[in-house]
Amino acid sequence: MTTVSDYFGSLVFDDRVMKATLSADVYQSLRKTIDENAQLDIGVANAVAVAMKDWAVAHGATHYTHWFQPLTGITAEKHDSFISPSPDGGVIMEFSGKELLKGEPDASSFPSGGLRATFEARGYTAWDPTSYAFIKGKTLCIPTAFCSYGSEALDKKTPLLRSMEALNRQALRILHLFGNDSVKCVRTAVGPEQEYFLIDKEMYEQRRDLRFTGRTLFGAKPPKGQEMDDHYFGVIKPRVAAYMEELNEELWKLGILAKTEHNEVAPAQHELAPIYTTTNIATDHNQLTMEIMQKVAAKHGLVCLLHEKPFAGVNGSGKHNNWSIATDTGVNLLSPGETPYENAQFLLFLCAVIKAVDDYQDLLRLSVATAGNDHRLGANEAPPAVVSIFLGDELNAVLEAIETNTPYQGMEKTQMKLGVDVLPKFNRDTTDRNRTSPFAFTGNKFEFRMLGSSNSIACANIMLNSAVAESLKIYADRLEKAEDFKTTLHEMIRKTIKDHKNIIFNGNGYDETWIKEATEKRGLLNYRTTPDCMPHILDEKNVKMLTSHGVFSEAEIKSRCEIMLDNYCKTVIIEANTMEDMARTEIAPAVEAYAVELAKSAAAKKALDQGLACSYECKLVKKLSTLLDRISVKTDELEQALFDLKAKEDIIEEGYFIRDIVLVKMSELRLACDEAEVITAKKYWPFPTYGDLLFSVK
Length: 698
Ligand code: ADP
Ligand code: MG
Hints:
- By secondary structure, the protein is an alpha+beta fold.
- Helices cover 49% and strands 13% of the residues.
- It contains 23 helices and 18 strands.
- The strands form 3 sheets. Strands 10, 11, 12, 13, 14, 15, 16, 17 and 18 form a 9-stranded mixed β-sheet that branches.
- A hairpin with a 2-residue loop joins strand 8 and strand 9.
- Helix 12 (340-359) packs across helix 15, helix 20 packs antiparallel against helix 21 (615-645) and helix 20 packs parallel to helix 22 (651-679).
- The longest helix has 55 residues, at 554-608.
- The protein is globular and about 100 Å long.
- 47% of the residues are buried.
- Magnesium ion binds next to loops.
């Protein structure tokens, strides 16, 4: 019997394969490049390319591709075959170091927000040796970064790697101040928990809204929804279980550490969590996971919906970004230590995160902003659009004691003076699981919960890493100059707690009163929609911070803002067009047909006997006719709104118009149609209902 360990990573050119297929010299050079960012010379690249190609061909691959993550949010690949003609009329399989290192996809159709126009016409891809190559189907996929010839990043991976490097630089300064000289490298790690819906493919095919937009644009609430809470952690249905089994196998072959899976709150909703790994690899893996999830679903007659809000009135799907910082010596810097000394260092890193999240609430918020996620954040669903941090009671008590110079209850009457020697030992708080906080400390990591299920995790981590790098830089600048390290450290930690305690909230984030308190009393930001938050990426403080750490150039920031807003607008426009179309060509005719049938029946009854009552039919026909008129009016209004939108001159104005007018018209149209759905005979309704979709998979 084959076991998981037999095939785990079998489609990955990982360290085991490298060791087995490369000469000792080549292997050592490559390792140096992977571990220490050392430059790779072309001789080594050639040798690696040959070994990679031979291994891939032996596993059935015929093509290779530079696999990258353009700003559209999906991954992109252009396949080239290994074949090269040989003089005898046959072919040989070839792959050179040059082809491994650099590719030139015809990138003119990827969004660049004007970058390519300003700089160079074409972009190129560059190998990221820290993320292993892998085989998908018959193609060797080489993870790469995608840049313009002016070196402007056209993808999500480049700034992610830069943000990791920025955090590494600043964290090392702090660690050296604490005397940790053996640490060579600090990396962030992420474990993203991925939510998704599974529905029956045949039903999906019948709904144009799902096919074109990934979410339902119409649909009355089903008689049974999620109110029983009977789905959460419930027994997994056989079709779903078979799906999960195959999904795990496919992910394991790709070296992805898929670990847990369970049902979620909503019917047909599930979750998959991998074991955490280095952030850029976790990002690649999450992109791959989303792709494989959809592929495997198709094989099971299912469709995997990754949209943030496929169904109104039912929980949406998010992605929890579990994030920590660790050294190459294996120390998790967000883990309270065993000794007071370690705890002082832990508290400083904790403060760096608190300060970062408070100072750059806007960047964190906008890093997860999409048209889809707007239906969750700031709508009737948690987490809210207000960023706050949950710390748990114990840690909170420690911080309060430090701030107020009072005894910490966990310590017998000891003054909380954060000299390196007097910090109390405290245990990590694992009991309290606050589920509503957008940014929760969970013992030895932070869980950023605002990400949408279809988001690339790159964006959130770019902002998180950069903001924390900035806090650490400010601390290091001060500590390096300090005459008395301990006193300065203590004062800095106290000041951070004092200045930033407003962002700490340990209560219920779903509570309406919290939003009031957060915005009115605490002055926290509440950007409810993408057009509200996105332009703030251009705020001076944000541009200054991101450019000073070399994460983005100013031009890159501008281009990203434009692309994200453009994406928002396009998404909603497609939805609006689809709605208009479905209302006119499917819903209105169905309602009409049913009304005609009722009217015929009424007429027939009347003809039979003057005295025969037909109040049922008449009442219903009246209702349906009124609704039909409303549907028609609302469809026209939506059409007009889309027409008016065309007159908007810039993308920010367009975003506001969509937020204020188009989306409002869309909900009005939906409301009329949903009202019609519940009084129209089922056999007339042109597509599967919520009840059909949500309970379609047995
Ligand atoms: P839950 O949040 O469902 O209780 P866990 O906290 O055990 O589950 O883990 C959730 C995710 O957090 C998993 O992907 C796990 O690998 C990841 N995780 C655990 N420890 C860390 C860490 N130190 N850094 C980053 N991610 C982590
Ligand atoms: Mg979790």
